[in-house]
Design a protein that fits this description.
- With 336 residues, the protein is of the alpha/beta class.
- A hairpin with a 6-residue loop joins β6 and β7.
- The protein contains 15 helices and seven strands.
- The radius of gyration is 22 Å and the shape is globular.
- The protein is 47% helix and 9% strand.
- This is Torsin.
């Protein structure tokens, strides 16, 4: 279920979980490799040797905060708040050997502002295989929870999936995309796992990380950004305190947020509501340059300008913010 590219329907959760557990058991090929390696290298602990050939859950592995900071600063454009909050939240959480609850982050903003990109960066910095890791689980609301009449089924399956995977790896990461399209009530199934419990049915969830990605609240974020712009203030002057309280209340009261009247907000179980600001023309140009470099192409400023100018901007009068952020940069660059 949670690997969007490889898992199909939510109803298949049971067999998939079983397959996941089986896959975690040492395969014959790895066993042979271990024997050969032992003979060549001398004594190594079974765990250390096994982990040279297969992905292991390194619960005590420290976060390279410097590498994460550099990656966020170099690759995430126009999001000073997201960069600052995510870096501090992850660093503090990973440095705490005895957290009282899982780290829960809720990322909000219009499409194309970098929410999915950030979740990918975070996953890669926590588990080397990133979104392909056995310990990183991606849920897409429209794919995994499509039918409103199956909410109870989804809740049961979600609890089972999370329980099983946290039992296998305490530092598992769970990413919920398209939260604004999630039927209200589904996400409350995981409330006990996010609370301040030492264990739930014999399992501790305190070292897990949960990330929610949502377009909900984008209008509130844009309003604040626009107010700053019209007052002649820089977007970098916007602080978390200017947006987080408005976001939490707005999302709680929004029927289309996936967190509508959710116990996760009511019980203050979401640690940070992280706003992603709408992107300006200059940020779109940064995205185009980054995409050209990623393709191994020399940066051509004429093409950068043409792609940026093909985007549409709002509000109607000022035309400050890209209405799709950087979401269509890749496809538009294909035409040049």
């Amino acid at each position: 279920m949670p690997r969007a590219a490889g898992l199909g329907r939510a109803a298949a959760l049971g067999p998939l979980l079983a397959a996941h557990v089986v896959a975690a058991i040492e395969p014959i090929s790895v066993g042979i490799a271990l024997g050969a390696a032992s003979a060549l290298t001398g004594y190594l602990s079974y765990t250390d040797l096994y982990c040279r050939f297969a992905e292991c859950c390194r619960e005590e592995q420290r976060l390279n905060a410097s590498a994460l900071k550099l990656e966020l600063e170099e690759k995430l454009f126009g999001q000073h708040l997201a960069t600052e909050v995510i870096l501090k939240a992850l660093t503090g959480f990973k440095n705490n050997k005895n957290p009282k609850k899982p780290l829960t982050l809720s990322l909000h903003g219009w499409a194309g502002t970098g929410k999915n990109f950030v979740s990918q960066i975070v996953a890669e910095n926590l588990h080397s295989k990133g979104l392909k890791s056995n310990f990183v689980h991606l849920f897409v609301s429209t794919l995994h929870f499509p039918h409103e009449q199956h909410i109870k089924l989804y809740q049961d399956q979600l609890q089972g999936w999370i329980r099983g995977n946290v039992s296998a790896c305490a530092s598992s990461v769970f990413i919920f995309d398209e939260m604004d399209k999630l039927h209200p009530g589904v996400i409350d199934a995981i409330k006990p796992f996010l609370d301040y419990y030492e264990q739930v049915d014999g399992v501790s969830y305190r070292k897990a990380i949960f990330m929610f990605l949502s377009n909900a609240g984008g209008d509130l974020i844009t309003k604040t950004a626009l107010d700053f712009w019209r007052a002649g203030r820089k977007r970098e002057d916007i602080q978390l305190k200017d947006l987080e309280p408005v976001l939490s209340v707005g999302v709680f009261n929004n029927k289309h947020s996936g967190l509508w009247r959710s116990g996760l907000i009511d019980r203050n179980l979401i640690d940070y509501f992280i706003p992603f600001l709408p992107l300006e023309y200059r940020h779109v140009k940064m995205c185009v340059r980054a995409e050209m470099r990623a393709r191994g192409s020399a940066v051509d400023e004429d093409i950068v300008t043409r792609v940026a100018e093909e985007m549409t901007f709002f509000p109607k009068g000022e035309k400050i913010y890209s209405d799709k952020g950087c979401k269509t940069v890749q496809s538009r660059l294909d035409f040049h």
